[in-house]
């Protein structure tokens, strides 16, 4: 049995991850941690049948790493950097699903985890990761006369925009085109913007309700349009994917991995 520790266990994804670990016959929960000062600290964790487990939510992340074979982190970029240092100290494999890293934070994450097995992904859904591969192939096959636009929608509570998944889809499209996304993307359009810049990848963001996640990549040509899309109706698809990734990561050599590695879809 693989001992899986959960960071950010008090949040929506944390609760979904708890359920996914408890459902998994190959895994056992090693503990759950919330941020210091959280009202969740000290609360009993509950089994699938509603009975209390032998765990209470802690704020001691270091102890969680020490007692786990692998740890899953769905928190914030700032918290994930702290957790990355703890993972390196304890040499514990780490799965990171936090999104919204800026370039400096991502560079720091890469540095902190250089000597451990790290699996970082913007989305842990099987369907979304297949979508990445399809978007890359379509962008490579279709010429620059097809404009690429990426539309995403999430629940009203999501803090970062565009979503990490939308940006990852943009990276897939840019890879297919052989261009750099950072210098070929339009994140905001407002007012008199002028004609669309040829070769750029556009992003549009919607927020509202309880939408778990919707993404569409449009290839708009003259007289025709191709749309590749994915809709998530339950965040359990992300939680089960993250647990699958955690099981896969245990025993891997130090390095950076993503869901394409887990699913055998690496280009």
UniProtKB/TrEMBL annotation:
InterPro entries: DapB_C, DapB_N, DapB_N_CS, DHDPR_bac, NAD(P)-bd_dom_sf. Gene3D superfamilies: Dihydrodipicolinate Reductase, domain 2, NAD(P)-binding Rossmann-like Domain. Pfam families: DapB_C, DapB_N. NAD(+) binds at residues 8-13, 49, 97-99, 121-124. Its EC number is 1.17.1.8. It catalyses: (S)-2,3,4,5-tetrahydrodipicolinate + NADP(+) + H2O = (2S,4S)-4-hydroxy-2,3,4,5-tetrahydrodipicolinate + NADPH + H(+); (S)-2,3,4,5-tetrahydrodipicolinate + NAD(+) + H2O = (2S,4S)-4-hydroxy-2,3,4,5-tetrahydrodipicolinate + NADH + H(+). Residues 127-263 form the Dihydrodipicolinate reductase C-terminal domain. Pathway: Amino-acid biosynthesis; L-lysine biosynthesis via DAP pathway; (S)-tetrahydrodipicolinate from L-aspartate: step 4/4. It is found in: Cytoplasm. Residues 2-124 form the Dihydrodipicolinate reductase N-terminal domain. Belongs to the DapB family. Catalyzes the conversion of 4-hydroxy-tetrahydrodipicolinate (HTPA) to tetrahydrodipicolinate. Homotetramer. This is 4-hydroxy-tetrahydrodipicolinate reductase. It comes from Iodidimonas muriae.
